[in-house]
Structure formats: structure tokens, C-alpha cells
Automatic annotation (TrEMBL):
PANTHER family: PROTEIN SMF. Gene3D superfamilies: 3.40.50.450. InterPro entries: DprA (IPR003488), DrpA_SLOG (IPR057666). Residues 8-203 form the Smf/DprA SLOG domain. It comes from Chryseobacterium rhizoplanae. One of its GO terms (biological process) is DNA-mediated transformation. Belongs to the DprA/Smf family. This is DNA processing protein.
Length: 224
């Protein structure tokens, strides 16, 4: 586990970003993934539908094709599919977890988490043995939004914790893309996000919108 490299990363954040960033970030793996290229968070339901699975796979594969690092939260469902797809297609992935690095949630993702820590990048803002509470995961979402140039919401319910990620992305000035199926389900928070700048991702425009995602977190002149 390391934390020293984050001090340099933190010093380059804008004032707004520093207010929304953890003061320490614990990590295992390749920290350069947090400093180079574009990163996009792919998030959504834990109990993902068959269509949601296919959509996640398609999006993550396209991100890899465009040399974009796939970021997600190592939860079951959309998160796991996004990570595994990036790995399967020789892309890069970052796992942002709501537990300390030495804990696993869900335990079924232990092998995946260990692989990401060894071959990619695993990060947490919680020190070892820090107690895990339900609040840990919305806090994690803020950090995931912070390190990503954009967030894509693939599938979600009205009560989904995914909404925390969406609001944090918008608050930080990051691009937020919501798949049209979420809007078709009349999810109220998703509809509200459109009025704050979120965009609808469709089968027709997803390639264009993903290719157009700006470098918001590595080319500092683009931020705010």
C-alpha cells in the first residue's frame, strides 16, 4: 500500500477539486493510470438486467478501443462487468472501493480486486481497519467522479445509489452521460440531471459522445 504519490497529484487539483478530494488516497498498482490519458467511470445497478449487461460490455469495450481507462467501484453488477470487460480486451481499469484496501465487498470479487491491485490500479480513501458503513459508498462515489473525466450511468432504479455518482460528477463539472433506457424508465433523479447538463446516451450517439469526452483531469488547463 502506498500514499506518497497522491501528494503530488493532490497539489495539482483546482481549489474546487481539493474541497471535494480526500486528503489521503491509499493505492496499490499503477498510479500512472491516475495521471495519464482519459478515464471514464461506468456505473449502474448491482442487480443488472441482461440488457444492462450487454450495454455495459459494449460501452467498456468501446472505451478500451479509444484508449480510455475504465473506472468503476468493484460492486456486483455493472461495476464488475465494466472491470472484467476492460481486462478481457487488454485495456486499463481502476477500482475505487468503499472499504479499506485490505477488505473486500462483495467478497465474491476478491480475485478481481486482487488482480486489479496487481495489474491495474486499486484505490481507497479509507485506511486499513477503518470501519465500513453505508455512508462509505456515497463518499467513494465522490472520489470516483473526481478522478474521472466523465461518468456513464448504464442502468439504475429510483432508489439506486448510482444517483450519488451522477450528482457528484455534475457538481465537479464533469461530463455525465445517462443511457436512454434509464430515462425511459422515468427515473425522476435522472430526468432532473438533464436540466443540470447531463446528456442522454443512445445507440446512435454513444460512439460520438464517448470519443468527444474532453481531458478534464489530466490537462489542467481544461478544468474550470
Amino acid at each position: 500500500m502506498q500514499i506518497s504519490t497522491f501528494n503530488d497529484y493532490y497539489s495539482k487539483l483546482t481549489t474546487v477539486e481539493k474541497k471535494n478530494s480526500p486528503k489521503e488516497l491509499f493505492y496499490k498498482g499503477d498510479f500512472s493510470l491516475l495521471e495519464n490519458g482519459r478515464r471514464v467511470a461506468v456505473v449502474g445497478s448491482r442487480k443488472v438486467s441482461e440488457l444492462g449487461l450487454k450495454r455495459t460490455h459494449k460501452i467498456a469495450r468501446f472505451l478500451v478501443k479509444n484508449d480510455i481507462t475504465v473506472v468503476s467501484g468493484l460492486a456486483e453488477g455493472v461495476d464488475s462487468i465494466a472491470h472484467r470487460t476492460a481486462i478481457d480486451f487488454q485495456g486499463n481499469t481502476i477500482g475505487v472501493i468503499g472499504t479499506p484496501l485490505n477488505k473486500y465487498f462483495p467478497i465474491e470479487n476478491k480475485d478481481l480486486q486482487d488482480f486489479i491491485a496487481e495489474k491495474h490500479l486499486l484505490i481507497s480513501q479509507f485506511p486499513e481497519n477503518y470501519p465500513v458503513t453505508p455512508k462509505s459508498f456515497p463518499i467513494r462515489n465522490r472520489t470516483m467522479a473526481l478522478i474521472s473525466d466523465a461518468t456513464i450511468i448504464v442502468e439504475a432504479s429510483e432508489k439506486s445509489g448510482t444517483k450519488h455518482q451522477g450528482w457528484e460528477a455534475l457538481r465537479l463539472g464533469r461530463q455525465l452521460l445517462i443511457m436512454e433506457n434509464v430515462l425511459n424508465d422515468n427515473i425522476s433523479w435522472a430526468e432532473e440531471m438533464l436540466s443540470y447538463g447531463a446528456q442522454v446516451l443512445t445507440q446512435d450517439n454513444f460512439e460520438f459522445l464517448i470519443e468527444s469526452i474532453p481531458f478534464l483531469t489530466t490537462k489542467r488547463e481544461y478544468v474550470f
